[in-house]
Amino acid sequence: MKFGICSEIFKEWNDIERTINFVKETGYDGLEIAPFTLSQYVYDIPASTRAAIVKYAEAADLDILGIHWVFVGPEGVYLTHPDPEIRAFTAKYMVDLVNFCGDVGGKILVFGSPQQRNIDRDVTYNQAFGYAREVFEKALPTCEKRGVTLCMEQLTHWETNFCHTPEQTVELIEAINHPNFQLILDTKAMSYLQEDRATLIQKYARYLRHYHANDTNFNGPGWGDVDFGPIFKALQAIHYDHYVSVEVFKFEPGPEAIAAKSLAYMKQFV
Fold first, then answer.
1. Is residue 192 scored above 90 in pLDDT?
2. pTM (2 decimals)?
């Protein structure tokens, strides 16, 4: 099991080299990049910046584990939109994201993006399911070529009306049936489900390729009421050897405090 942290926590630094060095010095194994912290559109991130990220990460001996928050910033992308032109643009943009992920050495592309997957009132769930499948399937040949696994994230019912349970998310994964399309689970997102997190981790172990650690108070692990003991026990029980990555939505404590306290808290369980 490896530990990562998400780059938007350090957005105000506006310095990817400083971020990489600090993350390594704090004791993390990897950094998960949010592309919007570098550019509104991922295709506008120049080759020089991509190469610099690789250089800095190699010098620090830190993994760039992957990317997330992938539809934050760009306009016109929508996973379940009924307009085929919008879906075509979305699929093309997904390929751009996969290529960026591969260019910086990443292996995981997390797809959350609740607002850009919500089902319009004139679209049925089955139609939305088909639209999403269409978009993802167009990106998967590039995923396979670049060694990137696209991880579909279950989000809460108050964030989105598409794939808001692990069951629905796995239904899409099974329908697509591709080794580069798998599951991410998120601590906060599982808070509103009938089954507890440990049970869900073990239930969907065969698909689980990434895990986001946070609390229901939108801060990091160890900053709220969630007991991560059973979570890590379940991850160890399934012999999970992928990343657990800190993702927060409240940045007020500051990046140094969030990173240090979250990691120290998690490491007591492994």
1. no
2. 0.96
